[in-house]
């Protein structure tokens, strides 16, 4: 079980309940907008993408506006607040950056679960808090 997702330190204990069983775990780091700050870390178990951890900048707003555009997150399944929305298939949490690379935007940590697994909502919530702390200590939050 990895203790980091594409360079962001996470708790392997908190990640484990979100992944299905399998023999091999691999990661693939993608920056689809070529260094515009959106980073996607795909986690593959036995060759299938089952988990995606993203870091995305967005104009100032709230977590719900980010959550409803995520493929795995249905608005009727979401719980939370203006800064943190979550369900059993993923979450969106605003990251608290002390010196954000993009001071006029908000950074969000977005774990998504496109695989067949259906973890407990409490596990998704706990992992997301841990992942957001890791993202807050990454280069995304340093000028």
Structural overview:
The protein has about 140 residues and is an alpha+beta fold. The protein has 3 helices and 9 strands, in the order ββαβββαββββα. It has a 7-stranded antiparallel beta sheet. A two-stranded antiparallel ribbon has the order 1-2. A hairpin with an 8-residue loop joins strand 3 and strand 4. The protein is globular.
Q: What is this structure, in a nutshell?
A:
The protein has helices at residues 12-15, 63-67, 121-136, and strands at residues 4-5, 8-9, 25-30, 39-45, 48-59, 79-80, 84-87, 90-94, 105-112. The protein is of the alpha+beta class.
Number of strands: 9
CA-based gyration radius: 14 Å
Overall outline? globular
- Kindly report how far apart the N and C termini lie: 31 Å
Please summarize the sheet with the most strands. 7 strands, antiparallel
The main sheet orders its strands as 3-4-5-9-8-7-6
Number of helices: 3
Q: What is the arithmetic mean of pLDDT?
A: 91
What structural category characterises the helix and strand content? alpha+beta
- Helical amount: 10-25%
Order of helices and strands: EEHEEEHEEEEH
Low-pLDDT stretches are: none
Beta strand %: 25-35%
Multimerization state: single chain
């Amino acid at each position: 079980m990895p203790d980091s997702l594409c360079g962001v330190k996470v708790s392997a204990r908190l990640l484990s309940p979100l992944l299905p069983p399998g023999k091999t775990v691999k990661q693939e780091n993608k920056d689809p907008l070529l260094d515009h700050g959106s980073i996607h870390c795909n986690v593959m178990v036995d060759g299938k993408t089952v988990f995606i951890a993203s870091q995305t900048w967005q104009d100032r707003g709230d977590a719900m506006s980010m959550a409803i555009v995520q493929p795995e997150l249905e608005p009727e399944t979401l719980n939370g607040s203006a800064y943190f929305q979550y369900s059993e298939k993923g979450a969106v949490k605003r990251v608290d950056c002390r010196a954000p690379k993009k001071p006029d935007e908000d950074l969000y940590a977005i774990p998504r679960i496109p695989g067949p697994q259906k973890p407990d909502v409490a596990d998704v919530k706990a992992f997301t808090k841990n992942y957001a702390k890791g993202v807050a200590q990454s280069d995304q939050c340093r000028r």
